[in-house]
Design brief:
The complex is a heterotrimer of chains A (about 260), B (about 260) and C (about 280). With about 260 residues, chain A is an alpha/beta fold. Chain A has helices at about 45-55, 100-110, 115-125, 135, 145-160, 175-195, 205-210, 230-235, 240-245, and strands spanning about 5-15, 20-30, 35-40, 65-70, 80-85, 165-170, 195-200, 215-220, 220-225. Chain A is about 35% helix and about 25% strand. In chain A, a hairpin with a 2-residue loop joins strand 8 (about 215-220) and strand 9. The termini of chain B are far apart. In chain C, helix 7 runs antiparallel to helix 9. The chains are: A alpha/beta (about 260), B alpha/beta (about 260), C mainly alpha (about 280).
């Protein structure tokens, strides 16, 4: 397994007035090329901060100690790393057409002219399984549903052919049916392109259905990391076990008894 | 036995740029005393509109709604406000559903004050009792809403809903915005409160697994219509509608990735 | 971070606050600094400034102490400025809240009223009002407020329209709160922030309008104001320009100070919105 990125003793803190809030605390983590790694955590766990640190999107006021090693050279955000965020209505520019937003990455990083980039955008929209890509190029984000917007965001993220795709709670704002479709889309895209996937979520079952490895975060620290099978069947840490216990699915015993 | 709440043929449509879109169409269902009806559907199915119709936050275009034997749609103004003691609501995002400038005591005290359920002198004690019922320390009353955690905020929202001793509470995606470990606690709290006081719930959600955990009966919605109803175990084991089947198939399962 | 802490981070806000504080101190201290009636004659007329230490800023055409007039004049400016702004905000925020919350016909009617007031230039409206009713301080305050209330009304209405859709407003309806209480106790306090940010600009405008009215002889004739001082100096503008320039500078500094204070305040208020 070749290493895509090695995170060494990474700590990130944000200043809020006179106080310093620790978002990540001495995190050591290796991301292997081509793997699907899930980051699980609840609010305040630092999982989104980790994504921002990898993508180089931390605000200037953030204090970062420790390093991230990229053996194949520092990645260029946009070209080598694509990112999909949680809120599909906030990550697309409401005044630009879908075509412009998807093609932008190709124009900026692949040096294509707008005509070629638009063709590429149309192909990408077809790959993310959106209907009628040609007319969609001229549509605006508000004309699409949340799930469709998220597909557009994915198309825009992979437009320049990145090696790493980061999905930060990309399905959390969607209903379960659309969520399942998006997860299936990510699975197939990542396999076809040979991308590495970093999938951030609070849902441990979702993570286990998509990822090869799962890393569990809690209050800025990495608690446990292992294969999906190990984490879900033989968790070593109490916190991981409690997350598994709190998970509700169709096999969880109902909280109410049968009514007479 | 007459149902606590009975809806017949509820309909509501909105006009969007000259086109009439039916958000809810022909919805009929009932809820008995002490039971939980789960309303599940994908986004855009009309479940939130239905919840707001029941709560009289928006007016239905057609249909009837019978609550405690009388026509709920006939009430207006002061009479409606007085009847609101009997049916309450908990919203999805507790930070958005509580006045950002308020303290916990303000939030819980409002319904007590509005419906004159306790005078100013005895209000702190009433608030402390409600906080205790939802598992929060009495000292939280003086804290501001934005200072407490998400789980605590939703408990405060539930305490506010309980303040007027309602017979029915409508919960609209009430645990969807909460952390996973907090979710289970809130659901347990709701079930305990129901066992103690015989209160009924209408639990609206897009996640059928969560609804299954606390609902006695499930109604599945899609495109504004109720496409399936039945006892929970039956609907889950053998869904008849395409939407029901899709909702069940979409529940993430704890299993390692298939390559 | 508290509002005060955020405010102290902006240099222009601090400068404005300093100017405003100094002015308030001077205005309040006027009866102690210059206990004699500023309109009383104390020395030879048209004494130049900085020539006589007991009359630091000289005297006007009738021999009145310019410094005493200046200090007493600040009272009128600040009083009218704040009072008119307070009236404008109270009227405007109330109308805007009712319009935004009620919607429908009420909203339409109220907004046409706002339009009507807004199409008349504020100064002309004040001018007409004072001419008809007669010049006195309360009338001047009301006249200025009549021109200034439309800005806060529109701002308040815009905020209310967006706040009205929030879940906490729906929650207030669900618990049976009376619509008036929802509008004025739940929505309005949260809608005030942009209105308060505008208030400094209104104060600055009110001070200038008052000065202009006084300059035209339509201010309160019984008190000394900076506008009336400038008017007095008009007759001797060539020979003793200091009589008009000094109150003019005072006006500029005051308005600048108020405006910068408002900038600092609105920045501090908006920074909180960005963070949360």
């Amino acid at each position: 397994m070749t290493t895509l990125a090695a995170i060494e003793d990474l700590s990130v803190a944000f200043r809020q007035g006179s106080r310093s809030v620790t978002a990540l605390d001495s995190v050591n983590l290796t991301i292997n090329s081509g793997e699907r790694l899930a980051i699980i955590g609840e609010s305040g766990s630092g999982k989104s901060t980790l994504a921002l640190a990898l993508a180089g999107l931390l605000p200037a006021s953030a204090e970062q100690i420790g390093k991230i090693h990229w053996p194949n050279g520092r990645p260029l955000p946009g070209r080598d790393i694509g990112m999909v965020f949680q809120d599909p209505s906030a990550s697309l520019d409401p005044v630009l057409t879908i075509g412009e937003q998807v093609a932008e990455g190709a124009v900026a990083h692949l040096g294509l002219d707008w005509k070629a980039a638009r063709l590429r955008a149309r192909d990408l929209l077809a790959r993310v399984q959106l209907p009628d890509p040609q007319s969609l190029l001229h549509a605006f984000p508000h004309q699409l549903s949340g799930g469709q917007r998220q597909r557009v965001a994915i198309a825009a993220a992979i437009a320049a052919g990145p090696v790493l795709l980061i999905a930060d709670e990309a399905t959390s704002a969607l209903d379960t049916i659309v969520q399942a479709e998006i997860v299936a889309l990510l699975r197939s895209l990542v396999a076809e392109e040979g991308m590495t996937l970093l999938f951030i979520t609070h849902d441990i079952a979702l993570a286990s259905s998509l990822a090869d490895r799962i890393a569990v975060f809690r209050q800025a620290k990495l608690v446990e990391i292992g294969t999906s099978a190990d984490i879900t069947r033989h968790p070593r840490e109490f916190y991981t076990a409690s997350l598994l216990a709190a998970h509700i699915d169709l096999t969880t015993p109902p909280l109410i008894g049968e009514r007479a | 036995m007459t149902a606590l709440l009975a809806a017949e043929g509820l309909g509501k449509s909105f006009r969007r740029g000259g086109v009439r879109l039916a958000a809810v169409e022909g919805a009929s269902f009932s809820v008995d005393a002490g039971e939980t009806l789960g309303i599940v559907g994908p986004s855009g199915s009309g479940k939130t509109t239905l919840a707001r119709l029941i709560m009289r936050l928006i007016d239905a275009d057609m249909g009837t709604l019978c609550f405690e034997g009388s026509d709920l749609f006939a009430l207006r103004g002061k009479a409606l406000r007085a009847t609101r003691k009997r049916f309450q609501m908990v919203f999805q995002d507790p930070l958005a559903a509580l006045n950002p400038r308020a303290s916990v005591a303000d939030v819980i005290g409002d319904p007590l004050r509005i419906h004159r359920l306790s005078d100013r002198a005895s209000r702190p004690a009433a608030i402390a009792r409600l906080l205790d019922r939802v598992g929060l320390p009495a000292a939280l009353a003086s804290r501001a809403v934005h200072e407490i955690s998400g789980g605590q905020r939703q408990r405060v929202a539930i305490a506010r809903a309980l303040a007027t001793k309602p017979r029915l509470i409508v919960l609209d995606e009430a645990v969807s915005a909460l952390d996973v470990s907090v979710r289970a606690h809130i659901l347990k709290l709701l079930v305990e409160l129901q066992a103690e006081s015989g209160i009924s719930y209408i639990f609206v959600s897009h996640d059928i697994a969560v609804v299954r955990a606390i609902a006695h009966r499930i109604a599945i919605m899609d495109h504004g219509r109720i496409v399936e109803t039945g006892p929970t175990a039956q609907v889950i084991a053998a869904p008849q509608s395409a939407t029901g089947k899709a909702l069940i198939a979409a529940v993430p399962r704890l299993m390692p990735a298939q390559d | 971070m508290s509002l005060v802490a955020r405010f102290t981070r902006s240099p222009e806000g601090l400068f404005g606050a300093a100017v405003l504080a100094a002015l308030i101190v001077i205005a309040l201290g006027a009866p102690f600094l210059f206990p004699r009636d500023p309109l009383s004659i104390v020395g030879p007329p048209l004494t130049a400034p900085f020539t006589n230490w007991s009359l630091p800023l000289g005297t006007d055409r009738l021999g009145r102490d310019v410094l005493a007039e200046l200090v007493h004049g600040s009272r009128a400016s600040l009083l009218v400025g704040f009072a008119a702004t307070l009236a404008a905000i109270i009227i405007g925020a109330s109308v805007g809240t009712v319009a935004g919350f009620a919607g429908g016909l009420v909203d339409e009617v109220l907004m046409r009223v706002v339009d009507a007031f807004q199409t008349v230039p504020g100064f002309l409206l004040a001018l007409a009002f004072v001419s008809v009713i007669g010049a006195s301080l309360p009338v001047v305050v009301l006249a200025i407020a009549l021109g200034a209330w439309t800005g806060p009304a529109r701002l308040a209405r815009a905020e209310v329209l967006s706040l009205r859709e929030r879940d906490y407003v729906a929650a207030a309806r669900v618990i049976g709160m009376h619509p008036a209480e929802i509008a004025f106790r739940q929505i309005l306090p949260n809608a005030l922030a942009p209105v308060l940010a505008l208030s400094a600009v209104i104060v600055a405008g009110a001070i200038l309008t008052e000065a202009a009215l006084s300059f035209l002889g339509l201010g309160d004739p019984n008190i000394v104001t900076w506008g009336s001082m400038i008017a007095e100096g008009r007759a001797v503008l060539r020979s003793a320009p200091f009589l008009s320039i000094i109150p003019g500078i005072a006006l500029v500094v005051t308005v600048l100070g108020v405006y910068l204070f408002g900038e600092g305040l609105s920045e501090a208020l908006s920074r909180r919105a960005v963070r949360s």
